[in-house]
Write a structure and sequence with these properties.
Layout lengths: L4 E4 L15 E2 L2 E2 H12 L4 E5 L4 H6 L6 E4 L7 H14 L4 E6 L7 H10 L6 E4 L18 E3 H11 L7 H6 L3 E4 L1 H4 L20
Parallel strand pairs: 1-4, 1-6, 4-5, 7-9
Antiparallel strand pairs: 2-3, 6-8, 7-8
Helix pairs in contact: 1-4, 3-5
């Protein structure tokens, strides 16, 4: 079972120097890779969470059956963007959603399916953890790839949003959360490449 998906595509891509969602990877815009992989995994409803005035992006996706939601949060304000998307999801009566950043074109359909299959019972969030070489508490967590329940996530984000330490990793890990590390996702046939972010021009090589 998979859920509707939210693609977070609102950043200005300052490190890249151009709109990351439109960058071509293997002859195709990055956001098209992500939509394709989400669809293959079974995410039939897809929401693009972005800013206004994204005419080129809308033009590229004009033939695709996707939904749009806009927020006016500042650059780097991921929490408000996620909250805006979740409120939209609640208006559509979506029980749970799969988050996805726009800069992960190699996301594996097996990872998406695996996360959604684990979101059962009292769990609010299934949170993947990549194989990070830096040993800190939250560094390897991938909150923008979380599979989560909509209503409970809205409530906790609204409660925590004005806190000084309000990172998504911290918020999600304090909920009824299952962290899925490489010991689990490798059994699904998922590789570390699935977590690769395209942030700089050199990352395309």
């Amino acid at each position: 079972m998979t859920f509707p998906a939210i693609i977070l595509a609102g950043g200005k891509s300052q490190r890249m120097g151009e709109d990351k969602s439109l960058i071509e990877i293997e002859g195709k815009q990055m956001i098209l890779h992500i939509i394709e992989n989400l669809k293959i995994a079974g995410c039939n409803d897809i929401l693009i969470q972005t800013k206004q005035n994204r005419g080129e992006l809308k033009s590229i996706l004009s033939d695709l059956d996707v939904m749009w939601n806009y927020d006016d949060s500042g650059e780097g304000d991921v929490l408000n963007a996620v909250l805006s998307a979740l409120i939209f999801a609640e208006s559509k009566n979506w029980h749970a959603v799969q988050l996805m950043p726009v800069d992960t074109p190699f996301i594996s359909k097996e990872l998406i399916k695996g996360l959604s299959n684990l979101l059962v019972g009292n769990l609010d969030v299934v949170l993947p953890s990549s194989n990070s070489k830096i040993n800190t508490k939250f560094n390897s967590l991938e909150p923008l790839m979380a599979c989560l329940k909509v209503e409970s996530s809205i409530k906790i984000i609204q409660k925590k949003i004005n806190n000084k330490d309000n990172s998504l990793s911290k918020i999600f890990s304090e909920m009824n959360c299952l962290i899925v590390d490489e010991k689990v996702w490798t059994t699904w046939g998922v590789s570390e490449k699935s977590f690769k972010n395209i942030n700089y021009p050199k990352d395309r090589e």
